Predict the 3D structure of the following.
Amino acid sequence: MPRAVDGTRRKDRRKKILQEAKGFYGRRSTNFRTAKDAVTKAGQYAYRDRKRKKRDFRRLWITRISAAVQSEGLNYSQFMYGLKKSNIEINRKALSNMAIEDKIAFSAIIGQAKKALEV
């Protein structure tokens, strides 16, 4: 009687890995052994960078806010302290967006922050 080698399970598992490796360069997309390593590494990068994305966007927002506030004669930390003192709770993403799209409203918020710093 012939020996059974887990046929469909093996094929399905390999097919799944090769499907995930679609779009990779060269052997990494066609050869199972190299594709398996490439997919594993890609998964590690994806996991790490989902965490890193949050950091990167926060840095971007802070840089944008800082640039917009400096034209008004404040620095970023003074501005944020002024917001805290005047009980304005707007997140950095919204502030950054406001600095780009609605300069009038953003300058009004800067005015509020300056007023709170003077007191």
Remarks:
- The two ends are 92 Å apart (CA to CA).
- The chain has a mean pLDDT of 94.
- The helical segments are 7-20, 32-70, 76-85, 92-101, 103-118.
